């Protein structure tokens, strides 16, 4: 008997349902919670652009570090340097935030989160999205996601700066609550950065023979373990950096003022 591989027109058509989804669970909670958390973070980050209370010796708010102008308090300058000189008098956050913000906005985990929470593309698995077409990350503005690796290099530098700030606070005020908060934040910021998919690929992702590169293989194994926790580290570090930044500003404003602050 002769068999044919041709399919009927009916079989080539996709199944159509009138319902937006057949899911019966509360699938909408994840995009809703994501939207609320990210919106709160964006609102807070915007507020820091206009707030000048970012330094309370020896603490400097993470969103404003490093401070690179002569208008910055002397103790807030990175290694005492002021490469932007006297002409720059605006908030240091305007110079700094674009780097970690760009790293997070192009991060693989955050893409999934805000694609669902803000763009509803799609809002959840097996749920129809409201958009009539999808071009992926091949067109503007989503094609800008491809520069994630370059933001990773900048995020490494920012992580090192925050670690340095924590070390300075640890030396000058070892028993301070702010010191503990800055240390915890620096740890999670750097763990989040190192758990990045780009970091895993750069470490040894292109090697064909791990046996010929034992050091890079060990580094790749370490980063791979972190990468498995990338989502958790992304969320935890977002709260630690916002919490540390807010704490320093409250101390600088005199709102928080108690022993070991």
The protein's oligomeric status is: single chain
The biggest sheet amounts to:
2 strands, antiparallel
The number of helical elements comes to 10
Total domain units: 1
Q: Which ranges are low-confidence, i.e. pLDDT below 50, for 5 or more consecutive residues?
A: none
- The succession of helices and strands, N to C, reads HHEEHHHHHHHH
Mean pLDDT: 88
Structural summary, described in words:
Keywords: Membrane, Transmembrane, Transmembrane helix. It comes from Streptosporangium saharense. This is Succinate dehydrogenase. The structure is a single chain. The chain has about 260 residues and is mainly alpha-helical. It has one domain. The protein has ten helices and two strands; from the N terminus they run ααββαααααααα. It has a two-stranded antiparallel ribbon. A hairpin with a 2-residue loop joins strand 1 and strand 2. The radius of gyration is 23 Å and the shape is globular. About 30% of the residues are buried.
